[in-house]
Amino acid sequence: MFLAPGARCRLLALGKAADPLARAALVQLGPRLDGGLVVTKSGHSTHPAPPRIQVIEASHPLPDERSVAAGQAIADFLAAGRSTDLILLLLSGGASALATWPRPPLTLDDLRRTTDLLLRAGAPIGELNVVRKHLDRLKGGGLVQLAAPARVRALALSDVIGDDPSLIGSGPAVPDPSTFGDAVAVLERRNLLGAVPRAVRDSLARGARGEETETLKPNDPLAGLAATSVVAGGAMALDAAAERARHLGFLPRILGTAIEGEARAVGRAIAAEVRALAGRRRRASPPIALLWAGETTVTVTGDGLGGRNQELALAAALALDGLTDVCVAALGTDGTDGPTDAAGGLVDGSTAARARSAGVDLETALARNDSYHALDALGALIRTGPTGTHVNDIGVALIRVERVSSRR
C-alpha cells in the first residue's frame, strides 16, 4: 500500500465481518495504521477491542439509534482527517443498516419504516439500495464526498449477486448511476409510494425535481479519489464447498451462483431437482451434493417469524415429503437469517412426517411466514452464531445412492 511521506492510513471497517477484517488489517499493517473505527452488528465483535480501534455495534436488518450514532461517528472520523490521508475501507454485508446518516429532515423512523416496507414487499437488494442511497448521506458514494480530499481504498466482501460494488453496503465509496427518479420508480413499482412516510415521499420528489443534491455520479471529479475491489463473494464460497464435497466423497454439482426469486418457490424448485436426481440414482454411483449460492426474497403476508433461508427449507421439506436418503440445507453465511438467531434450516424427506406426528402444521406455518417456529419445534434450525464473514446465502442438497451389497 503506497503512502506519501507524512500521510496516514486510517482504518474504517463497516459490516457484519468488520471485526475480523479489522483485526486482519492490524496484523498485516501494524504501525502503518493510524487508528480506526469498526461498525458491526450486535454480537459480531470480539472483546477487547483491537488496539487504537473504536468499535460500535448496531442493528440489522433494520437500523436503530445506534446505527445513527455510528453514521455520525463515521462522519466525525472522516472530518478529523487530513487531506493526505488514505482511508482503508473494509466493507461487508449489512453495512447499509448498521450505519445510517439520514438526509435532513428525514428521521431514523422514516428510514426504518421505508426499509421495512421494502423488505416485506420482497424488493431485491438492488431496488432496496436505490431507495436507501437517496435517503442517506453515507451511501451512493457519500463516504467519498465526506472524506474528500483524502483518498479512499475499499476492499469488499460481496453479499450481493453479481458482486456489483455499488450494491455492497449501498456503495459508500462507489459512484451511483441511479437517481431520485429511480428511487421514486422503485416505490411505485412495489406499490409503496403512498405507504412510505410523507417526509420520504416529499424528499424524493424534491430530489426528482432537482432540488436536492444527487448522489456521487461517475463523472464527478471526486469519484477519482476512491477505488473499490471485491476480494471475495458467494462464488468463492461455493468453490470451496464443492472442493470439500469432493473430499468427503460426494460428486458436486453447482446449480448456480446467482439463485434468486421467492424463497418458497426456490425451495420447491430445488426439491423437484432433488426428486429428479434421486429417481435416476444408480447403484454404486457416488452420492451427489447439489450446491447453490444467491439471495432469495420473501414477500411477507403473514404474522410469523423467519428468514428467507428458513422459508426455503420449509417449502423444500413439504416438497420432499416421503423421499428417503436426501436432505436440504439453506443458510446465511454470516450466521443469521432474517431477524432470528438461526442461520437457516436443515430438512429431509422425513421432516413433514415428523411435523404431522408432532402436531406442527407446515402448510399453515408457510402461509404465515412462520418458518422459524415450525423448524425450531422439529429441531431443524441451523444455529452457528456469528461466523465472522458474509458472502450471501449458500445451500446444499445431499442425495445418497443405493449401496451395493457385498453378498452375491
String of helices and strands: EHEEHEHHHHEHHEHEHEHEEHHHEE
Number of helices: 14
- CATH fold-level name of the largest domain: Rossmann fold
Q: Which architecture of the largest domain does the CATH hierarchy give at level 2?
A: 3-Layer(aba) Sandwich
Radius of gyration (Å): 23 Å
Mean pLDDT: 94
Strand content bin: 15-25%
Counting structural domains, the number is 2
Percent of residues in helices: 25-40%
Strand order of the largest sheet: 3-2-1-4-5-6
Sum up the overall morphology in one term: globular
The major sheet is characterized as:
6 strands, parallel
CATH class of the largest domain: Alpha Beta
Q: What structural category characterises the helix and strand content? A: alpha/beta
Layout of helices and strands:
Layout: E1 9-14, H1 18-29, E2 33-41, E3 53-58, H2 65-79, E4 86-91, H3 95-98, H4 108-120, H5 125-133, H6 142-147, E5 151-157, H7 180-189, H8 198-208, E6 226-232, H9 234-247, E7 251-259, H10 263-279, E8 288-294, H11 308-319, E9 326-332, E10 344-348, H12 351-358, H13 362-367, H14 371-377, E11 381-382, E12 393-399
Parallel strand pairs: 1-2, 1-4, 2-3, 4-5, 5-6, 7-8
Antiparallel strand pairs: 8-12, 9-10, 9-12, 10-11
Helix pairs in contact: 5-7, 7-8, 10-11, 11-14
